[in-house]
Design brief:
Protein name: Pre-rRNA-processing protein TSR2 homolog
Number of strands: 3
Order of helices and strands: HHHHEHHHEE
Keywords: rRNA processing
Radius of gyration: 15 Å
InterPro entries: Pre-rRNA_process_TSR2 (IPR019398)
Shape: globular
Helix content: 40-55%
Family: Belongs to the TSR2 family.
Distance between the termini: 43 Å
Strand order of the largest sheet: 1-3-2
Number of helices: 7
Structural class: mainly alpha
GO biological process, one term: rRNA processing
Length: 171
């Protein structure tokens, strides 16, 4: 039943799906930039919490402010400098999904999320169901899970700048 799920749960899942399609973030996780699996999962949940906090403070958050947060977070928590500007696209998707969910356009959000190559949340290993009524199911499971499913699906060149740092370049 759709009404049983909160907008916040749906937003959590939507952000998880966007993150699971973000190659730079997935490369960070694959290369251990976030620490072990438990630490990386904790950092991902903290990033989700920061994103939600930004929208709680300002429901009209501009995508560029969110992009700055994402880039800074990857820099500080995952020792990764983004040169491909992918944080802009990720932030724009998240802002659009937030606006759609806030307006009650759950079906539009589901339609947008099913267009992504990966339709599962990064916060769990189970695929997100196609229906809007079940978008939040796998985020709820993430509270009891300490694993993530961040396995890159495409190869990107990664350049080591200094030990512990990774630079993601524009294609």
């Amino acid at each position: 039943m759709e009404s049983a799920q909160s907008t916040e749960e749906k937003f959590d899942t939507a952000v998880g799906i966007v993150f699971n399609n973000w190659t730079a973030l997935k490369l960070c996780l694959e290369h251990g930039q976030g620490g072990n699996t438990v630490d990386a999962h904790t950092k991902l949940l903290a990033l989700l919490s920061e994103v939600k906090s930004c929208f709680a403070k300002d429901p009209n958050l501009h995508w560029s402010d969110l992009a700055d947060l994402l880039a800074d977070y990857l820099d500080t928590e995952f020792d990764t400098l983004l040169e491909d500007e992918s944080e802009n696209e990720v932030a724009a998707h998240i802002c659009e999904l937030f606006k759609q969910l806030a307006a009650g356009n759950d079906l539009e959000v589901t339609d947008q999320l099913t267009r992504f190559p990966v339709t599962s949340s990064i916060f769990c290993q189970q695929a997100a169901p196609a229906g809007a009524a079940s978008l939040a199911q796998c985020v709820a499971m993430s509270a009891s899970s300490n694993s993530n499913c961040a396995i890159p699906e495409e190869n990107e060149q990664v350049e080591d700048v200094d030990p512990g740092w990774t630079v993601v370049k524009r294609r």
